[in-house]
Protein 1
Amino acid sequence: MPHPDSPVLSSHDAHWWRQAVIYQIYPRSFADSDGDGIGDIPGVTSRLPYLADLGVDAVWLSPFYPSQLADGGYDVADYRDVDPRLGTLDDFDAMVAAAGRLGLKIMVDIVPNHSSDQHVWFQEALAAAPGSAARERYVFRDGRGRDGELPPTDWPSSFGGPAWTRVADGQWYLHLYAPQQPDFNWDNPEVREDFHHTLRFWSDRGVAGFRVDVAHGLAKDLGAPLRDLGEQQSYHPDALPADGSHPLWDRDAVHDIYRGWRQIFDSYDPPRFAVAEAWVRASRRTAYASAGGLGQAFEFDFLGAPLDAGEMHTVIDSALADARRAGATSTWVLSNHDVVRHVSRYALPGDPTKRDLEEWLLTDGRDPAPDLPTGVRKARAAVLLMLALPGSAYVYQGEELGLPEVADLDRADLRDPMWVRSGGRVKGRDGCRVPLPWTREGTSFGFGPAGSWLPQPADWGTYAADVQSGDKASFLELYRQALRMRRTLVADETLEWACSPEQTRQGLLHFTRAGGWHTVSNLSGGPVPLPPGEVLLASGPLTGDELPPWTSVWLRTGPASDH
C-alpha cells in the first residue's frame, strides 16, 4: 500500500512536496530579459517552459528582493517587494500565473536572521537613541573597555572578522554575517509579527513554500551580561552543543518561532510548506522538519559526503531515519548557490574537504588539476542515485547541463563578501553563480541580449541548453529522461537495501523501491556484475552483463514495462 502521505504531485495535493523535485534558481544568474547583464523575473518567466519540459515540480527562487547586494541578495532591504533591477510585483504575479498554467509551483527564499542595513527599520535605528524602541528590533549593545571601544563580546562573523560594528554614538550592533546584514532581535514581538505579515503577503500571491535561510540562527541568548564564546568559536554543526545551549545557534527557543509560522502555513489550502537551512547536528535537525514546525530540513550530509558506497549508505540510512522521526521526508542535494559545483568536486583527487576546496579555488582551479571526464562520469552516476531516493530532490540551476565550477574568475570580478572579509583567504561562491549558457552563440550565450554580471568562460557555449537538447548522451537529456521516468516510478516512501556489507565495501550500492524499481550504483574504479532486470536508464554506457565504474542504472523487475 502507498504511504498515506505519498504525493500525487498535483496542484491539489497537500503533500506534493514530500517527493517532489525542486529546481533552485539564483535569479541574477538565470535569464536576463532586458540586457542589463542581470537575470530578472521576466527572464525566469520566459524559461518556465524549459523547466516544465525538464520535469521538475517546483521552482525555488533565491532572494529577488530590493538589496544592495552586499551578500548576493541575502541582505534584504524590503521583504515585500521585488528589486527594481529584477522587475516588479506585477512581474512576480505574472510569473506565478505562468508557472501555474505549466503545473509548476513557486517557492521563495526568506531571510529572517538579518536584514540589509538599508532596511527602513535599521535606518530608523541608526537615527534613534540608544535604548529606543527602534533599536530594540535589532541587537545594539554598549561596548567593553574604558570608553566602550571594544566589541561587546568575542563573537565572530561567519564572513570573517568580529560580529560587531560600532555606530557614531558609540554603541555596537550585531551582524553574524556581513556588516551590511544586521541581525534582528527575535525576542521583539514587532519583529515576529512583521515576518508573519511577510509570510502571508507571499502566500496570498500564490507562493507554495519557503526556503528559510539560517533557520537555526534566529533565537539568541541576549540576556545580560552577554556570554563570550571563548573556545566555542567554531560554527561547525558537530561543534555545537547537543543540548541547544549555544548562545547564538540552534537554541530550543527557535522552534517557538516556527510554531507560529506553522499556524500561518496551515491557514491556507493547501497548507504552505517550508524547508530549513539549518546547519545543526543531525540529532537536532528533526525538530526543524517536524509537522508542527517548518516541515522539512536540508540534509547537507549527503551533499558533503564523498562519492563512496560505504559513506553514502551510512548517510542515506541516517537521513531516512531522521525523516521518519520528524514525520517528514528527506532532502537530497548535490549542489547549491553556496558550494563548489559537484562536477568539479568529483573531478578532484581524493575526497576534498571545504578547506581543500577553498585552497583549490585560490589556485584558480589549477592545483590539483581536475579530471573533468571523471567528474562528469561520477556526477551522472550521483544524480541517478539521488533521484531514486525517497524524499525531495533539490536541483541547482545548471547542474542539469553538467556545468563545472568557474574556478578561475579574476580577483577584480569577485562579488562575494567572503573575499574581502577574509582578507583574500577565501575566494568565495561566485564560481557557482556564473550566469547560465542557453545558446552556443551570443554575447552572453543566450543569458540575455548583452553581457553578464559575472564573466562567463569562453567555452561556456559548449554546455548550452540548445547544444545538449536532443543529444541522448548529454547531461540535459539524462535529467529529462530521469525526471520523466521518476514520475511514473515513485510510489511510497520506502527503500530496502539489496546489497550485502561486503558488496558495499567493494563499492556497490543497490536498493529497491515499490513496484520492482531497482537502483544500482557502482561507486568504484572497476566493473561489477549487473543484476538481472529490465534496464530503464543508465548514467553511462553499459558493457554486456557488467556495470562499468562510476555508473548508476535503474532496473525494473517483474512484468515488462513500457518505459
Protein 2
Amino acid sequence: MAYQDHIIEMSQLIKGKTGAWDGINAEGVARMRLQNRFKTGLEIAKYTAGIMREDMAAYDADPVNYTQSLGCWHGFVAQQKMISIKKHFGSTKGRYIYLSGWMVAALRSDFGPLPDQSMHEKTSVPALIEEIYTFLKQADARELSLLFRDLDAARAAGDAAKEQKLVDAVDNFETHVVPIIADIDAGFGNAEATYLLAKKMIEAGACALQIENQVSDEKQCGHQDGKVTVPHEDFLAKVRACRYAFLELGVDNGVIVTRTDSLGAGLTKQIAVSHQPGDLGDQYNAFLDCEEISPADMKNGDVVLNRGGKLLRPKRLPSNLFQFRAGTGEDRCVLDSITSLQNGADLLWIETEKPHIEQIAGMMDRIRAVIPNAKLAYNNSPSFNWTLNFRQQVYDAWSEAGKDVAAYERDGLMAAKYDATALAVEADERIRTFQADAAKRAGIFHHLITLPTYHTAALSTDNLAKEYFGEQGMLGYVKNVQRQEIRQGIACVKHQNMSGSDIGDDHKEYFAGEAALKAGGAHNTMNQFA
C-alpha cells in the first residue's frame, strides 16, 4: 500500500471513533506500518522464497545472473552488510545472507566455542535467523525514518517538488530483508528431529535450508577429515522432512539445498538396504571396499553381501565403520546429486577440497546430462588457501604450455616475494573472476563465503589492539576507525542513530506530542557527525 493510502485509511479509521482516537496521528501510524512491513517470520520466508525462485529462473536464462552471500554470525553484522550493499550498489538484488552452522558452533553456543560437529544447541540456529531479521527490519525502520525526517523538512520549507520526490522514495523503498540460506547441518537427529528444527527455522524466516548427507552423531566440518555419509534413503527421508515442514507452514516454494560430502568422505556407518540389483541401495553398496570370499572364509560376526552370486565382505574398521573404495568420491557425488534432485531438492552443494572450476564442472556436466537445469550453491571457503591454490593452478598451466617457470618454487608460491610477479598477477585475476567464470562453466547459481565475518572481526580487532595498546594510543582508534568511518560514509559512525534513538524520538513525539522528552536535541554529541 502506498504512503498516502495508509494515511487515508488511518484517517478514516480514527475519524470513525467519534473523537476517542483524536490523539492518534494518522501519518504517524502510516509511518510505523511502513517501518514494520513484515509482521512474522513466515511472511519473510514466503517473500524471500519468491525472490530466490525468481533469481533461479533468471540464472537459468543467463548464468551472468548468479547470486552471492556472505556468512554472518550476528544480526548486527548482517545488518551492516546489507546497509553497505544498498549504499554501494543501490539494490540488494542477487545478494543474500548465509547462516553457517560452523559459526553458530564457534560463536553462538552456550557451551562456548565448539568445533563444527553439531554439538551446539540446535535452537541457536533459528534464534540467529530471528535475530538477523530483527536487525534487518530495524535497518528498514532507520532508513525510512531518515526519509520521513527529510520529508518533514521539505514540507516545512514549502518545497512541494522535493516533498513529492521523497514520497516517491518511500513508496519505492527497497527492504534490507533478503533471503537467508540456513545451515541445518545433518538434521540434528532422525527425520522427525530434522522436521521439528526445520519448522523452527522457517518460522523464524528461513526460506532456504541446506542439509548434508553426513551422519548426525558423527558430523564433521566439510573441510575436515573423518566424514561419514549415510545411505541415500536415510538422507532423502530428511529432505522430505524439510519439504513437509515448508508445506505445513504454507511456504510452498521453499528452497532445499542438498549438500554432498562424498568427495572427502571415505566412510559409511551403514550398509544400505537393497531389494534388487541396481536399486539405489545396491548402487550405494557398490562403492564399498570389499573382498570376495567363500563360505569357508567367513568369520564370526562377518557382514557379507551377495552380489551376482558372489559373497563379498566389506572392509570394516575397528570403529565399526565401513570403507568406500579409494577414488570413488566423484562418482558418489554425482549419484548423490542426481538422486537428491530427483527426490525434491532444488539446489546442490558439492563440498570440494579446493576451488578448481574444471573439477566442479566435470561433476556438473555429468549431473546436467541427466538433469539439465541442475544448479549449485558453492562454498568459496576460507578453508581454502586461495592464493596458493590459484598460483599453483597458474604454475601448472604455464608448465603444461611450455612456459618457463624456473623462477618459481611450486610448493613455496605463498611467499610474499612472489606477490608482484606475473604469475601472482594472473592468479589474482583468476580469483577475481572465479565466481563469474564458475557460474558460466560449472553451473554455480549461488556463491557464498561461509566464514568471512569471523575472519574480518578477528583481523580488524587485531589491528585495533596493536595500535591502541601500542604507541599510537587513542590515535590508533581515531585514525584507523572513526576517521575512516567519516571519510567512507559508514552510517555506524552515528552509533546512537544506528541503535534506534531517532526512531525512539519519533515514537515519543507520536505518543506525547510536544511534551515528549527526546534524546536527539542540540546537546546530542552525534550532531558532531552531521
Protein 3
Amino acid sequence: MSYYNEKKVTIEMGDGVPPIELSTGKLAKQADGSVVLKQGETMLLATVVSAKEAKPGVDFLPLSVDYQEKYAATGRIPGGFLRREAKLSDYEILISRLIDRALRPLFPETYHADTQVMVWLISSDKDIMPDALAGLAASAAIAVSDIPFNGPISEVRVAKIDGKLVINPRLSELGNSTLEFIVAGSASDIVMVEGEAKEISEAEMVEAIAFAHEAIKKQVAAQVELAKLVGAEQKREFNHEPSNPELEKAIYDAAYDRVYAIAKSGTSKHERAEKFAAIEEEIIASLGEEVDEETLFLAKKYYHDVQYHAVRNLILDEGIRLDGRDVRTVRPIWSEVDYLPAAHGSAIFTRGETQSLTSVTLGAKDDEQMIDGAFIHGYNKFILHYNFPSFSTGEVRPNRGPGRREIGHGNLAMRSLKQVLPPDSENPYTIRVVSDILESNGSSSMATVCAGTLALMDAGVKLKAPVSGIAMGLITDEKTGRYAILSDILGDEDHLGDMDFKVTGTEKGIVGCQMDLKINGLKWEVLTQALEQAREARLHILNEMKKTIAEPRPDYKPHAPRIMQMIIDREFIGAVIGPGGKIIQELQRETGTSISIEEVDNKGIVQIFAANKEGVDAAAKRIKAIIAKPEVGETYEGKVKSIMAFGAFVEILPGKDGLLHISEVDWKRLESLDGIYKEGDTVTVKLLDIDKQGKMKLSRKALLPRPPKEERPNNNKPNPHRPANNPKKAD
C-alpha cells in the first residue's frame, strides 16, 4: 500500500542527454512545496515554506535561499575536524545567489511574508553540473505550492563548445568552451544572466542568451504541467501591505517638487541623502505625536515612492541624473600603482565616489587554495577576495566577515580577470588578489576589476590584455514605452532603477557579465543597446587606466619571491625526491628554497620557490644535474667517491659514477694514486665512453696538454695495472 501520491513530469533534452524528471508528493510533504529533480544520477530536493502572514512594519520580501550539497551525494566524507556539513561554502553561496536573484523579482511586490527556499544535492552524477538545475528545482517547488509567484522560471547553462551553442553541457566538456553563462528567465522574459567568456562580441552574447531562453521556455512549460497535476493553480490570498490613498496623495503633493529639485541639483551622495532625510523628517513630524504605527509605516513607504518616481522622471524627462551627469557619461577616474611598497603589486582605482585599494601577492604551489566541496574539489591557484567594510559607505555595523554579496562580487571580478591570466606553463605562481573597498557609491565590483588589472600589471604578471568593467542601469516607463540606459550607475540608481548590468571586457571583447532585472519584458533591442553603450564606457575606462600603466612590468618586484618551473621525465621524479625524501629535503635546506613535485600527464612538474633568485638558480642547477644524462665527449666536474689500486670512481652527476683509470689520470705513468687524490676531492674529467652495461670510462689526461713525444713515458715498459693480453698500443 502506498502512503504517498507522487506526480511526475519529464523534460526531454535531446542529443543523447538524459531527460530531466520533476516529481512531487513523495518527499518533504509538510513543506508548502517540495520537488525532487532527477537527471541521470543527479538528484536535487527543493523545498519552499512561506509564513501565512507578514510581520508588522515589513515592506519587503524576507526571502532566504540556501543551496547545500550533501557529501554522501558524491560518496565522500567531509573534511575538517567535525566531519559533517557545516556552514555553506563559497561555492554553495554562489549557487544560492543564482537561485535567489532569479526568484526574487517574480514574487508580487506586496508579498512580505517570511519565505525560505532550500535546495539540497542528494545524489550526484560526476559529470552533470547541479548548479544549472538548482533554479529549476526551486521554481518547481514554488509552482506546486500555494505561494503567490509570477513564475515559473528556470535556469540553464549555455556554453559555446567547438563553435556550437550547447545547453547544460557536461563538466568534462566545459574546458573547450569560449563562453559560459547561467541564464534565468520566465516564459516571456530574461531575469538574470551571469558568466564568463573569452573576449566575445556583444552579438555573440545576445545570441547565447536568446538560445538559452528557448530551453528555459520548455522547462517552464513542464512546471506548469506539474502544477496542474497536483492542482496548485490556485494561490493563497494575502494582504501584506495596507493602503491609505489620502495619505499617499498628501505626501506626494507635499514632497514631489522638493524631491525633484534636490535630485536635479547634482549634489554629492551624503549631501543629497541629508536633504532627502530632512524632508522625510518634516513629513513624519507633520503627522503629529500620536500617529499610529500603520500610518507611520505607510508615510515612510509613500515618501520612498515619491523619491522613486521623482528620480526616474528626472532621467526620462530631462536626461539628468542625481549627480548631474547625462546618461552616457562616466564619472571622473584617477588611479595609481605601486602604492604599497611592501606588496608584490598594488593599485588604487577611483571612479567618482567609488574606490578600491587592491593588492597582489605571489605565492608558491603550497599556497594554492584547497576546494573541499561535495561536487567540486581540488586546488585553485588564482584567488580573489573582495572586502566591503562599513566605513566605505559612512556607516557603522559589526565586522562579521564577508557576506553573500561580497562573495558574489568577488567571484565576478575573479572570473573576469581569470580570462586574461597567462597559462599555467607561463605562470608558476599562486596569485592572490585582495580588493578592499574604501569608498562606495555604485559598482565597487567593477572598480575591483579595474584595480585588479592595474595591480596585476604592477606585479609583473603577464596579462594577455587589460580588463575594465562598467555597471549599466535602466529606467523604463511601461505606460509610454520610454526608457533610458545609464552608464556607470550610482548606488541610488541601482536601488531605484530596473536593471543592474555589469559587463567586463578587453579591447577585443567581453570576458564577464552579471545582469539582474527587476522588471518584466526587457526587449532584445534594449539589451543590444545596453551592451553597445557598455562597450563605449569600457573602452573609455581602459584608456584612463592605460595612462597609469599600459602593460605589465617587464619583471617582478625585487622583493617578490622567485619561482621557477621545470619539467622533468617521469622516471627522474624518484631520483629528485630521494629515498624517504632525503634528496629533496637536503636540496631545500642547502639552497633555502621550497620545492614541490607533481606528476601531470606522465611528466614531472617541479616548482622551485625562494625569496631570491640565487636560491632558485642553485636548486635548479642541482636538479638539472640529477636528471642529466651523461654524454660522451662532455666535460664534468666530479667528486672522488672511492680509490682503488687501478684508479678512482668519480661521481660526475648525482648517483652516476664512472671509472677514472690510473692510466687516464696523467700523461706520465703513475704507480698509484696515493698523495694525488683522496675521497671527496673534486676532479675535472672527460667522459670517453659508455659501454653496453652503462659503465662509464673517464679521463683526466684527455683534458691536459699533450706533451712532446720525447717527454712521454716509455710505453714499452710493462704496466702492472694493464692486463697482459691487452697491451697499450704505441703512439
Protein 4
Amino acid sequence: MRIAETSDLWWKNAVIYCLDPETFFDDDGDGTGDFGGLIQRVDYLAALGVTCIWLMPFYPTPDRDDGYDVTDLYSVDPRLGNLGDVVEFIRTAKDRGMRVIADFVLNHTSDKHPWFVESRKSVDNPFRDYYVWRKDTPPDTSDQVVFPGEETSIWTQDKATGEWYLHMFAKHQPDLNVANPLVRDEIAKSMGFWLQMGLDGFRLDAVPFFLELQGTSKEGSATVDPHDYLSALRSFLNRRNGSGLLLGEVNVPYKDQLKYFGGAAGNELNMQFDFLSMQNLYLSLAREDARPLAKSLASRPKIHPDNQWAMFVRNHDELTLDKLSDSEREEVFAAFGPDEDMQMYGRGLRRRLPTMLKGDPARIRMVYSLMFALPGTPVLFYGEEIGMGEDLSAKGRSAVRSPMQWTDGDNGGFSTAPAKDLVAQVVDGYFGPKNVNAAAAKRDPGSLWNFMATLIQRYRESPELGWGDFELIKQSDPKVLLHRCTWDGSTLVLVHNFGAEPASVAASLAGDAETGFEGAYLRDLLDGEDVELAPDGGFELELDRYGYRWLRVQRPGQRHIP
C-alpha cells in the first residue's frame, strides 16, 4: 500500500464536520443562518483542519422537524439562499481543500410534499403508491413509535379516502414506498442532481427504516430486496462520482451493521456510525472504567478494506443509549443527565459533552483525543471545537442545535438581527458566548480549539488510525484503554486514562509484525517526551488524571513524519 492511495478512499481518514446552515452564520441579518454565511466561514473550517463538511438538511420544508420534513428534493429552502448560493459555497469549500456531503432524507417526505398532496386525493391517484397505505384498521403499534410520547401509532387515517398511511416517525412525515420502482428512480435522480451540483456524497438518514418493507403488499415486497437496492444505489453513486460517499445512520447490532456495509463484498454503505462504541464510551466514562468500551471495540466485525466506521461523541440528535441495558443506561443518566429534562424518550441525553463533564478541561480533552485515536473517521458536530453547551430551554433535540458562538457580542456574533428574530436562542450562562466563542478560542494557544486543531493535524499525519489494523494491548489497570493501530509497517500506540487519579501502565508490544525492538523507541506525537522500548518491546508509562498519549514506534532507519 502506498501513502498516495489513501486519497482514493478519502473517507477512511477524513475529518468530517457536521453543521446546520440555518444555525451556523447569518449573512443577511434576518436571524437565520444561510449559505452566504457559510461562505464567510469556510476559511474558519479550513484553519481548523476539516476535510469534509456535512450539511444538515437545507431543502424546502415547513420546518416542523428541523428540515427533515422535505417538500422538494431539488431545491433550497429560500430562507437559506438559492441553488446559486449552494454552488458558490461548494466551490469555495473545494478551493480550500474540503469536500461537501449533505443529509439525504430518503425514508419519508413532508405531508406537504406534492407527491403526498397528490397521493391523498384518491386511491387510484398516480402518486398513491409513492407511499404505504392500508384499508383495514391497523392494530396497536404504540410500541413501534420511534419518538415515544410524540405519536401513539405508526399509522394515521387520512380523512380524504378513509385509508391509513404509514409513518415510522411523525404523522406529518409519511413514509415512502421503496418497493415502488418509481420511488427508487426518483431517489436516484435527485441524488444525481446534487452530485452534478458538486456534492461528494450523502449522509443517509434512518437507513433501516428506509429499507423496511412494513405495510407493503406481498407482491410489492417480492419485487425488491432492500440490500440489493442499497447496493444498486451505491453503484449509481459510483457511476456518477467514482469517489462518492454513502455514510449511513444505522443504529443496530454489529452483525446487522455488517449487512448494511454489504458483507464481505463491502458494496453497500461506505461508512456507518459506530453507535455501539459511542454508547459504551459513555458507560466507560460514567464508571471511569475502560472495559465497556474495550469490549465493544473488540466485538466489531471485520469489514471490507474499503469500508469505514464513523466515530463521534456528540451528534445532532438525542445522544441515544438504547443499546445499553436498563441498569447501564441508568448509570449514564445518573452521571451525565440526572434531571429528567436532560433526558429524551427514556433512552438518550440532550446535552453536549462539556456540560456533561462539568467543564473539566482535562477530561474533555481526553475524550476528544480518544475519539481521534480510535480506529475510524472522526465526525465533529459544530461548536464542539470550542466547547459549546446546550440550551435546555429549547424543545427536544433542539437543545444541542443552538446558534454557533462566534464572538462575545450580541447573539454570539451569529446574527445582527434582534434576539427575538433568531431561528434559535443562543446558549445562556457559563457556556454562552461570553465565555465560549470562536474568536477568543482561536487566539488562545491553550484553548480547546487549538488543541482540536493539533489533534486533527496529528490524525491526518497518522494514516495508521484510518487504515491500520486495530488491537487492544493487555495491561493491568481497568481505568486505562491501551491499543495500537498498525499499517504499512508502522505502528501507533494510543493510551487513555478514564480515571480521575493518575495511572501507571506497564505493557509490551511483543507480537508486533516487525520482529525485535533493538534500538526502537516510542516517539511522542503530542506534547510529551519519547518513551524507551526494551529490546523485547516492553515499556512503562505514567499518566495524569484523564491523561492520554499518542506514540509511534520508531525503529532505526525509519523516516516517519517528524
